[in-house]
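Case study 2.
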Amino acid sequence: MTDAHDPYVSLRNRNFLWYVASLVAMTLGTQIQATVVAWQVYALTHDPLSLGLVGLAEAVPFIGAALYAGHVADRHDRKRLSLVAIALQTLCGVALLAYTESPHAVAGGRVWPVFAVVFVSGIARSFLQPARTALGAEIVPRETYANAIAWRSSMWQGAAVVGPALGGLLYGFSGARLSYIVEVVLCAAGFVTWARIAYTRTPAQPDMLSIYQNLTVGIRYLLTQPELLGAQVLDLFSVLFGGAVALLPIFADLLHTGPQGLGVLRAAPAAGAVLMSVVIAHRKLRKAGPRLFLCVAAFGLCWIFFALSRNFWLSLALLAISGMLDNVSVVIRSTLLTVRTPQHLLGRVSAVNQIFIGSSNEIGSFESGVAARLFGTVNSVILGGLVTLGVVAVTAAATPALRDLDELS
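Prediction:
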């Protein structure tokens, strides 16, 4: 960042505005899909494990294709690859709409078609993430990376606030049909706005690496960056065990609210994250390492208290605070990734990053479902929060470079 800090520098970049417009539209669409799918599946099965299986159905292709997707993002046109992935995600919305319109599938309680569509959606996301992340670093100057990431996070989180709430309201008042129609329209808008980005591909650097070496170069590079690796590991295990977003339909029942309340609960972490990302965009983030560990520890405590709460407003506040704390981790990790990684490796290193994210979010959903089945919903979330505190202590002891990190540069 420049010495004269300009908090709005990225917002004057036309390409960046098209970038975040597409990001917002796609996030709204996919968040609506996630909310409606979760409620539909739980309404049909009344089984917490089924909610975990939804996460697993997306995580398997998302993580399994990640390294190859990163390789493709570094060797081919990142804009074109993103457009193909967005188009595939749009078709997934169309397929879910068709499922809802089929009375035999819904009335028969068959949920495997939903899992199949979610599986394909995971493939689309796997290729979209590294291409989109790498292209985002190409359309803004290097000195504004941290500012662009803070605003990008703010826009994404803002959409993640509105998306679940909108999905819950649409489903609660109009049913799944209108919800999926809105999702398809939003994903189509994401395609159109992404196509408006003025982007000229930088030719890939020739190399003599084997396909195996190309697929694993991101992992090998990450192992040389202790601060970045530590941040990735901390995020992986804290969200894997500390969060329980997949179980929110069950907590919505415990709190005596319906799909509308579920949408609000799902939106609360993102609402808190929006506030935090705007604060970060307006100031330099100093003492990044100590703040990171403090925020992740507090994140785990928030989920422990959330599990014990039986008051809707207290639960909502705890989720919002957890989102604020998690956003600090997101900005620090994303900025380190962008600043420390050479452009020609950014797709492959971003793919490794998405494995960490996919493991913590989607595999975390599966872990939450299994733990809830074994230990009960409340006990599983409390246990996960305690594990998060242990992860913070171990990571702080093992990565002094991250623990002592000051500025992100």
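The chain is about 80% helix and 0% strand.
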